[in-house]
Fold these 3 entries.
Entry 1:
Amino acid sequence: MSISQINSQSLQLRAITALRNTAAATSTNATAAPARQADSVELSASARALTNATQSVEATSDVREDRVAAIKAAIANGTYSVNSRGLAHAMVRAALK
């Protein structure tokens, strides 16, 4: 008999033993099933604060109406001017990211 056959038989015996142990454990657990406790979850104070902050941010508008109104008025009056140097710097920074 070669070593590989012995190893194969040993693995088979271990598998059969494991199956028997599992079956025995399952049958004893099925007969004496303990009462289950209800699942529960508790959130920490920091988790509640984070949830409240997230909800507040989601509730706010992405558009600043006062700023939009001021820019519209400046464009209508002809007094709106763009800082071309600042715009160019912002465009280069955005392109490099």
Note: The two ends are 67 Å apart (CA to CA).
Entry 2:
Amino acid sequence: MPIGALMLDLDGLSLTSEECQLLTDNQIGGIILFSRNYQSPKQLSLLIAEIRNIRPEILIAVDHEGGRVQRFQEGFTRIPAMCCLGELYRQNPTQALLSARQLAWLLAAELLVMDIDLSFAPVLDLDHTLSQVIGDRAFSDDPEIVVKLGSAFIDGFHAAGMAATGKHFPGHGGVVGDSHTEIPVDSRNWLEIECADLVPFRQLAGSLDALMPAHVIYPEVDDRPAGFSAVWLKDILREKLCFDGVIFSDDLSMEGASVAGGFAERAQAALTAGCDMVLVCNDRSGALEVLEYMNRQKIVYSQRLPRLKHHSKLNANLAMSPEWTAAVNRVRLLS
């Protein structure tokens, strides 16, 4: 079944009457959940059932990476920040790769049993020690270590039954600015980016199911942020890197997206550049503006989006499985 091109957020722990009505619009193809939408596993299960009752095919996603980016905590295993795997890799690569796979499986499995399709992970940015918004979310500053750990992480997601979304293409770690609150500019030339930050995306393009570009401008390559740039998304990502997965925009309410204009203009710029789905979070009026634009333009649905629906066979009694026990013990060793 076709999936619409807009992903938006919800206000609270259950659907409002406005949100129930909104979800009947087929242009809305995804819901992203935040900490404000979570109280307990039981409450989350009821919320997801509400959503599925209206739109069974909709994609339900969350930013649930571990460390400081883990939306659901009480009742879920606390996953450590990914930098711990990079540190372990320098001492014991075999154990680090096993840990990456097990942590990813655990993270994905605990979401899948709740009927959540996606966690937007792994982070494939390099930690150049410049970007606080990336920082310990990155595996390492070494692109080859990021490739190895990223590959093991993707394997863990796939083993659980979840699609993997790499971010933030072509790399957010080379700027000080946080694209949530400003418009970062990375002044490095193409060769510098290609030989460092682009390496994980190039080498993992064949195994990733989706990618999310950065709201960062790389003026030596193009004067538009990567998420609004056909040079980055079509010429480089699709053509040079042969990536055929889904491209999600990063949140269009972030300051880094403001260069494109109003919300309708941001959505148009992202979709024209090559995004399959756009995210609008924490700004309902902006989301409604995008929705009105999409209905007016009759946006053609991407045929790639349905590939991301999960088909997991995981049992709800996840904690009874030996895989879950082994992964939780691995977390304890790393914490």
Note: The domain at 6-28+38-55+67-83+118-133+165-311 is CATH 3.20.20.300 (TIM Barrel).
Entry 3:
Amino acid sequence: MMKNFLSSTQVNRQMNSPLYSRPAWLGIITIVFIAASLPILNLVFPDGHVLHMSSYVISLVGKFMCYALAALALDLVWGYTGILSLGHGVFFALGAYAHGMYLMRAIGRDGVYQSNLPDFMVFLDWKTYPWYWSMTDNFWYCMALVILVPGVLAFVFGFFAFRSRIKGVYFSIITQAMTFAFMLLFFRNDTGFGGNNGFTDFKRILGFSVTAPSTKAVLYLITLALLVGALVLCRAIVTSKLGRVLQAVRDSESRLMFIGYDPLWFKLFVWTLSAVLCGIAGALYVPQVGIINPSEMSPGNSIEMVIWAAVGGRGTLIGPIIGAFTVNGLKSWFTTAFPDLWLFALGLLFILVTLFMQKGILGLAQKLWAQRLPTKKDANSGTLKEEKA
């Protein structure tokens, strides 16, 4: 009974989907190769050359890849485990702040006030760093914070929430309340995180200029590599027995408990892993965009992550990546051409996807592919009949 339940036909259909076929993976590898060539075009060809790729495009695509990594992390808990989080923005921002602390320390005495303290601390008449800034001048210590801070918060929050059997809309509401509470906390000047303005005006990372084209290229390639690595990791998880248990949690948690599984630790694992991936995305976001402030923790940002996953196609891993690029590409165009209409366009997009494309862009593509296959088979059978005649 247990074996049959964990090997449902729905899971098997997904494993044999054209989305995971060899041509699909070849297509992904081709896209990755093209994406990896963009910073090379920026460095090799001079400005004005037909093959030159501007630094603006490199930074924009790098930012979109950070968003795509966050969308992938959300899809792991929402699409495959059925846990709808409206607070993933807090994990993204905490990873960004952890890296931002190192970047602020790396400014040294090059700030406006020429002090060893960040400018905002000098302005507020701080004399020394608070205790939680200790050792943040060490890059690898801050990278550990990028993983540990979102991970520990997610583990503690998830343990009490999942142990109390909080799920569905109630879980979504408390995650939204969590990110809103953290946003209000970080807006305060006395917390030591820059208040409204947050962290900005970064100078160096590991001794290299943050604004140098070569540094931007390296950050871009690291982001691409981690996005691909996260996709492979998530793919390995969802196609394993662990992934089948996670999907069983999504489809029928009570039945899973009846056959002897405790959903708590499975949900806690995937929830914590998702938070860590979001934190890494935030850490990659900060040096490429050049700023992090409490607005990244706003509930609206977390809701946008949900929209990225829904538009691309939740429960597919690749779909949220497509959704993040699609929605943010539209946002970049709308906020330039029609800045007052973007929120209306975003709402309309979400309504249209909910009504007519429940499986998102990728689901629509799979449906069209499935309709195309019988036509090919019929054409081949017709040809064989003509040859026999």
Note: The chain has 15 helices and four strands.
